[in-house]
Amino acid sequence: MELSNREAWTAIHGMILGAIFLLAFTGGLASFWSLRPEWVTQAGLKERMLRIYAGTTVMAVAAWLTVLTGTYKVYPWYRAVPPKGLSGEDLRLYPKSYLLATEGKADWHDFGMEWKEHIAWIAPLIATAVAAIVIYYGPRLAYEPRIRKLLIGLFIVAFATAGVAGLFGAFITKAAPVQ
Q1: DSSP secondary structure letters along 26-64
Q2: N or C: which end of the chain has fewer CB within 10 A?
Q3: Residue 101 in contact with residue 87, Cβ under 8 Å?
Q4: Sequential pLDDT tens for the chain (179 residues)
Q5: What angle, rounded to 10 degrees, do the helices at 17-33 and 42-69 form?
Q6: What is the pTM of this model?
């Protein structure tokens, strides 16, 4: 199997960084949920905090890397303007133009991509805020259930916004791949 440069960057953007994001979210959420003083010893609290630090920080970094590679590496290929006179299947190398010119596919750009390119930036912002609050509070989070619940909620919102962006990205790539 061989990937072109564009296909490789698209895979790094969506699949590799997306998988890291997903794993960091899962570990971070499980650690948040079980971070209760009645459930953990002092040694357990230390271990749990290491997982929360790692989970939230890795999730934030993965979110930023995903958005930045998408915005500055993959997205310009999607938006490339074709030479004048191309139409139909000839537009396949120009995904945006291909979607807009193909009957029944314009909504993938008009709604899907326009929404994706905006919502995707929400995930790293929220994930970074969660990581910063975790670093600030540290082990005190075990004794602050309201703050911990707020962070769980924000963590889920960051994940959900990335999930929506990723879902649109997968569908758009299926309809008009960056080749």
Answers
A1: HHHHHHHHT--TTT--HHHHHHHHHHHHHHHHHHHHHHH
A2: N
A3: yes
A4: 788 898 899 999 989 998 999 899 988 888 888 888 887 788 888 888 988 999 999 999 999 999 999 999 999 999 999 988 887 777 888 999 999 988 889 999 888 888 888 899 999 999 999 999 999 999 999 899 999 999 999 999 999 999 999 999 989 988 888 87
A5: 150
A6: 0.88
Outline where DSSP puts E strands in the chain. none
Residue 6: name the closest of 110, 166, 105, 14 by CA. 14
Q: Residue written as tokens 């895979």? A: 11
Both tokens assigned to 149: 């619940």
Distance CA 35, CA 73 (A): 38
- Separation between Cα atoms, residue 87 and residue 100, nearest integer Å: 11
Q: How far apart are CA 141 and CA 154, in angstroms?
A: 15
Distance from C-alpha of 141 to C-alpha of 37, rounded to nearest angstrom: 9
